[in-house]
């Protein structure tokens, strides 16, 4: 999707989010930091769906919480409709959250089991003083009907609903204030496959009907491919490749993206047999002590000495359009096969650098 600055809804500029590791009982001192998000640049345009994929621990959910204001950023800034939201006051943050909402991964843990569904969905109206009494009940029941729930179940508790229905309750709550952006943090990973399809189709229908913009985080690459206009691939706190969805799935340029996509399930057994499967050796390095240079080099089948000493920029590589940047010195060429090749350059240590007494 292309467009000018007027189409730009969210701009993430050089965002870092580090979590300190402290030691001590009375006087706590910082001994290390978890580099959860480490210099991310992203743009989200109005009406599109940006998919974010990567292994567990790569920083996807932390980045999502930074965008929604749930985590303060360590460094960098996030612009929403051109305004910097990283230093908002409490009142400013409350107003900002009318435009940005989140659908959480766990449809069980994200709903208070002691409160009735009508009260849960109606919370945004109560917090922002937009409706009360009969008007609030009417609006809540309209939202329930919009997401495929029976409005007559207004007074039921979450335990009386299935997992898919509970996630629809979460969707209804996120839609209450008609936000401009919804961050979906793995919204279908805890659901059965058949229910996943229903929730994804619901989100697609709501996007077309209400003009929503999504940031969609998921582990299931086939789901991301189905829903996303653009896809960003994260590894160890950084975006290593970003492109239009079909371009990325057809010809990934970063070796990590190629390995990740090769693990995606394929419905056609003949196509699955022909597909290349790239098996990465080794574990993801510790985010407390990330590798120098390219962070993927200890596991990369194409790594060379330059990858150890020089951190690659996230820029378009030769032959790629401006919309397809890749952080790799030696990107995957069309038709190149990586299966059977193993990393030849290992990192010296993936353990955090802690004081001697803590080893």
From TrEMBL:
Residues 309-321 have a biased composition (Basic and acidic residues). Residues 21-261 form the ABC transporter domain. The keyword Oxidoreductase does not apply. CDD domains: ABC_NikE_OppD_transporters. It comes from the Bacteria. GO terms for molecular function: ATP binding. Coiled coil: none annotated. SUPFAM superfamilies: P-loop containing nucleoside triphosphate hydrolases. Keywords: ATP-binding, Nucleotide-binding, Transport. Residues 309-336 are annotated as: Disordered. Transmembrane segments: none annotated. Belongs to the ABC transporter superfamily. NCBIfam families: oligo_HPY, PRK11308.1. PANTHER family: D,D-DIPEPTIDE TRANSPORT ATP-BINDING PROTEIN DDPF-RELATED (PTHR43776:SF7), TRANSPORT ATP-BINDING PROTEIN (PTHR43776). This is ABC transporter ATP-binding protein. It comes from Actinomadura yumaensis. The lineage of its organism: Bacteria, Bacillati, Actinomycetota, Actinomycetes, Streptosporangiales.
């Amino acid at each position: 999707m292309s467009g000018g600055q007027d189409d730009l809804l969210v701009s993430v500029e050089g965002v870092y989010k580090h979590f300190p590791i402290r030691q001590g009982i009375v006087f706590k001192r910082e001994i290390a930091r978890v580099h959860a998000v480490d210099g991310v640049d992203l743009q989200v345009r109005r009406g599109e769906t940006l998919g974010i994929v990567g292994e567990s621990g790569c920083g996807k959910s932390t980045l999502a919480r930074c965008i929604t204001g749930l985590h303060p950023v360590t460094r960098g800034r996030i612009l929403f409709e051109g305004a910097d939201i990283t230093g908002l006051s409490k009142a400013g943050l409350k107003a900002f959250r009318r435009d940005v909402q989140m659908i959480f991964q766990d449809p069980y843990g994200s709903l208070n089991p002691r409160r009735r569904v009508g009260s849960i969905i109606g919370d945004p109206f109560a917090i922002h003083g937009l409706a009360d009494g009969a008007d609030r009940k009417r609006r809540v029941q309209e939202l329930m009907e919009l997401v495929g729930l029976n409005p007559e179940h207004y007074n039921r508790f979450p335990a009386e609903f299935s997992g898919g229905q509970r996630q629809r309750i979460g969707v209804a709550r996120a839609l209450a204030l008609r936000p401009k952006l919804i961050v979906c943090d793995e919204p279908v990973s805890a659901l059965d496959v058949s229910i996943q399809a229903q929730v994804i189709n619901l989100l697609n229908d709501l996007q077309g009907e209400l003009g929503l913009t999504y940031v969609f985080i998921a582990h299931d690459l086939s789901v991301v491919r189905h829903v996303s206009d653009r896809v960003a691939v994260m590894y160890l706190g950084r975006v290593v490749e970003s492109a239009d969805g079909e371009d990325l799935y057809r010809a990934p340029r970063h070796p990590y993206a190629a390995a990740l996509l090769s693990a995606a399930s394929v419905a056609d057994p003949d196509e699955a047999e022909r597909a290349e499967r790239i098996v990465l050796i080794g574990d993801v390095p510790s985010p407390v002590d990330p590798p120098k240079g390219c962070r993927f080099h200890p596991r990369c089948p194409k790594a060379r000495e330059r990858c150890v000493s020089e951190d690659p920029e996230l820029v378009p590589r030769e032959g790629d359009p401006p919309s397809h940047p890749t952080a790799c010195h030696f990107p995957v060429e069309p038709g190149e096969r990586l299966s059977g090749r193993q990393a030849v350059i290992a990192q010296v240590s993936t353990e955090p650098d802690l004081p001697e007494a803590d080893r």
